[in-house]
Amino acid sequence: MAESNRGRLAYIAEATVGVTPTDPALEIMRFTTHSLAYAKQTTASSEIRDDALISSIPVVSANVGGDINVEYSSASFNELIAAAIRDTESTSMTNGLETPSFSIEESILDVVQYRIFRGMRVNTWSMTGNVGSIVTGAFGFMGRTEETASADTGWLGAGSRVDPNTNEPWNATSNVGTILVDDTDVGACFQGFDLNLTNNIRDRYCLGAVTPGGTPYGTMEVTGNLRDVFSAWDDLYDAMKAHADVKLVFDFTGAEGDLTKVTLPRVKLISGTVQPQGLNADYQQNIGYQALPDAGGIMIQVDYTAA
């Protein structure tokens, strides 16, 4: 019987959507859990029978996808972050129009079972940081096909698997910097943040095929919220009421000294609440936001500086 502690994920970028490169150098991925799966859609026949039973339940479509949940650490997910914002991996990445896809392999090593998902595109990306916790998040994928096997030589060939780095996971105590608003420390006692991106990818089905013929991108959206201890009606709350543009900057410094900075140059604060959290707790201000492109067309920028 299989145990979670013997699971492994590895991935590689595809040159052609849905095709695993020959002799791939698969990169082993750091993760906590995942929900990758083959999902089929069925429908029951509406045919009338004189015995009052259902005559058939055919498969009408199928797809693959799911989330890979992670604990963030320096340089561990730069390629996937680039894919999420539709750019190529570099030290400075912004929202673009690239259409990357990946093959993702799962190995269940104690029972020697394997599967590979192909044509996997990053549909969603999230980050969450709360006081006293590791910075976590997820990459949500949508893809085309799944292949299962009791040996991996069918797709690995003469390829290999590359071990991941061993950088320390970021925690909200030591590795998260002050959240800057319009490049300024507003003096707030921030207790948490969320950043969520979706590409609104959809499955495109064609007659005569069970799996998608394509997974086209839709509109990129970046949303989230900020949570801080309320002390006074501040610039954030005033900007929310005025529906004014603000700039948000999140930075993360790994234990190794690498700096990752996420910048949203133009944000609308779309909601704001100030509410008590119960007995022996604080009043909390919760500000919801959504990013828009600035004058140069940049909606999100991710910069990475090695130590």
Number of domains: 1
Biggest sheet architecture: 18 strands, mixed
Annotation field: number of helices = 3
**Order of helical and strand elements:** EEEEEHEEEEEHEEEEHEEEE
**Percent of residues in helical segments?**
under 10%
SS class: mainly beta
Mean pLDDT, as a whole number?
Answer: 95
- β-sheet strand percentage: 35-45%
Shape: globular
Contiguous runs where pLDDT drops below 50 for at least 5 residues: none
Radius of gyration: 22 Å
The separation of the N and C termini measures 43 Å
Instruction: Let me know the number of strands.
Output: 18
Q: Could you describe the 3D structure shown?
A:
The radius of gyration is 22 Å and the shape is globular. The chain has one domain. The chain has 307 residues and is mainly beta. A hairpin with a 5-residue loop joins strand 15 (245-253) and strand 16. The protein has three helices and 18 strands.
Itemize the secondary structure elements and their pairings.
Blueprint: E1 7-13, E2 25-29, E3 33-34, E4 37-42, E5 59-71, H1 78-84, E6 92-94, E7 102-108, E8 113-130, E9 136-143, E10 145-149, H2 153-156, E11 160-162, E12 180-181, E13 190-198, E14 221-229, H3 235-242, E15 245-253, E16 259-276, E17 283-291, E18 301-305
Parallel strand pairs: 2-11
Antiparallel strand pairs: 1-2, 1-7, 3-5, 4-5, 5-9, 6-18, 7-8, 8-9, 8-10, 8-13, 12-15, 13-14, 14-17, 15-16, 16-17, 16-18
